[in-house]
Amino acid sequence: MRKTLSGKIEEVIYARLEPGEDLLRALWDICKKHDVKTGLLLDATGTMETVRIQRFPHESRPGSAGIDMVQIPGQLEVSAHGIIGMGWMPDKSVTIPKGFDGEADTGFGAAGFVGHETPYFHVHITVTSASQTVCGHLMEGSPICRNTWNADAKVPTHFTVAIAKVSGVILRATFDKSGYYHDLVPA
Fold first, then answer.
1. Measuring CA to CA, which residue among 128, 129, 109, 126 is closest to residue 180?
2. Distance, CA of 32 to CA of 11 (rounded, Å)
């Protein structure tokens, strides 16, 4: 049976990101600063140096679980959107899977949370370079690009995000012994 709950948009938060900032970590910091427990990444638009994503592979391979983790070099034009919730790990004995290329994970990566009751992101990002366009899940290790018009100029980047803070419902990204799933809980 389909579960539905409703909430209300309380506010829309805009932020301009700085060169070198990691997009996923910047989103986490913004949500923490503004106490966003559930919300929407309405938009993230600008240029990035490189992007790490999870995507479906071009050809299936044994042991890949049907997912590729790739790094796409820049300069890249990007557009992203997604959902924001709260990481939920009811059983402390369960550990978050390893991150990009099997590196020890801080909890970011595809899930975007660092543990129990911390901000969570499910961000789909579309990346365009001179030779390709790719869509996938945003992962940690994706830095914002310097000013593309004049790298020596002392002007801010044009990379901007818009986040809607939602009240009345909590999106819980749950990771437990049964696996990973989203749950909706009244706030």
1. 109
2. 15
Peptide bond into 75 cis (omega under 30): yes
Each residue's pLDDT tens digit, 32-74: 899 999 999 999 999 999 999 988 777 766 665 667 788 998 7
- Measure the N-to-C terminal CA separation of the chain; round to a whole number of Å: 21
Task: Give 89's contacts (C-beta < 8 A, 6+ positions apart).
Answer: 96, 115, 116, 174, 175, 176
Residue 186 neighbours by CB distance under 10 Å? 9
Question: For residue 112, which of 86, 132, 93, 130 has the smallest C-alpha distance?
Answer: 86
Q: Which domains are delineated in the chain? A: 9-186 (3.30.1330.80)
- Reduce the DSSP state of residue 80 to 3 states and report it: strand
User: Is the pTM here over 0.70, yes or no?
Assistant: yes
Which amino acid belongs to residue 107?
G
Distance between CA atoms of residues 120 and 173, nearest Å: 7
- Say how many C-beta atoms besides its own lie within 10 A of residue 10's C-beta: 15
**Total residues belonging to the chain:** 187
Among 74, 81, 70, residue whose Cα is nearest residue 126: 81
Strands 169-176 vs 68-88: parallel, antiparallel or unpaired: parallel
